[in-house]
Design brief:
Distance between the termini: 40 Å
Number of helices: 8
Number of domains: 2
CATH class of the largest domain: Alpha Beta
Structural class: alpha+beta
Mean pLDDT: 96
Helix content: 40-55%
CATH superfamily of the largest domain: Glutaredoxin
CATH architecture of the largest domain: 3-Layer(aba) Sandwich
Radius of gyration: 17 Å
Order of helices and strands: EHEHEEHHHHHH
Strand content: 5-15%
Low-confidence stretches: none
Shape: globular
Length: 213
């Protein structure tokens, strides 16, 4: 892999960007971190807003192009390293369900948990992107109950996305700590990639806090 082929991950510790970093570790993907100190507001400076006008992480740079949006990043990276076995091929019968549950995260789960966290009144069911919170979460619970992963016995990049997300949202009490969610998240958080990134994040976050102090 040439220098131009290496992936740059625009990153800040203990944010949703951790999921993308964990995925890169799982894929064995050569990458570099471009670390932003969000406590110092670096994500709102012009240099980064030229990368992502929303001022959010993660974003990745690869082959001269930028990819933002966590769902797009997960699909892109897993497809880029098919030999890691974390993505069904285009002609695989499980490709559709795989894409369904990755898209479900961004289109339904995130809007629902943000409304719940902010204690905002959701839109009427007919206008809501996720119907209602209980229905949204119930569909996910039903799928995960088939286990051990979203697609049964096969772990994919979708499980990295969801395992990290459920771990965080249960930690903050936005998602109830039901057995099916807790067991599922544990399968991801017990993996070495998650443990390595989490430990590195603790040190990086402390450095950022000290720099702002």
């Amino acid at each position: 892999m040439t220098t131009d082929d290496r992936i740059t991950l625009y990153y800040s510790p203990q944010t949703r960007a951790a999921g993308a970093r964990i995925l890169l570790e799982e894929l064995g993907a050569p990458h570099d971190l471009h670390v932003l100190n969000m406590k110092a507001g670096e994500q709102r400076k012009a240099d980064y807003l030229a990368i992502n006008p929303l001022g959010k992480v993660p974003a990745i740079g690869h082959r001269g192009q930028i990819v933002t949006e966590q769902v797009a990043i997960f699909i892109y990276l897993a497809d880029l390293f098919p030999n890691a076995g974390l993505t069904p091929a285009l002609d695989d019968a499980m490709r559709g369900p795989y894409l369904r549950w990755i898209a479900y995260y961004g289109s339904s789960f995130e809007p629902a948990v943000i409304d719940r966290f902010m204690k905002r009144e959701p839109a009427p069911v007919t206008q809501s992107p996720y119907a209602d919170y209980d229905t949204m979460l119930g569909a996910l619970e039903q799928q995960l109950a088939k286990g051990p992963y979203l697609l049964g016995e096969r772990m994919t990049a979708a499980d990295v996305l969801w395992g990290v997300a459920l771990n965080w949202t249960m930690m903050f009490g936005v998602v109830p700590r039901k057995d099916v969610f807790a067991r599922y998240a544990e399968r991801i958080t017990s993996r070495s990639a998650f443990q390595r990134v989490t430990a590195a994040d603790v040190d990086m976050a402390a450095q950022h806090a000290a720099a702002c102090g």
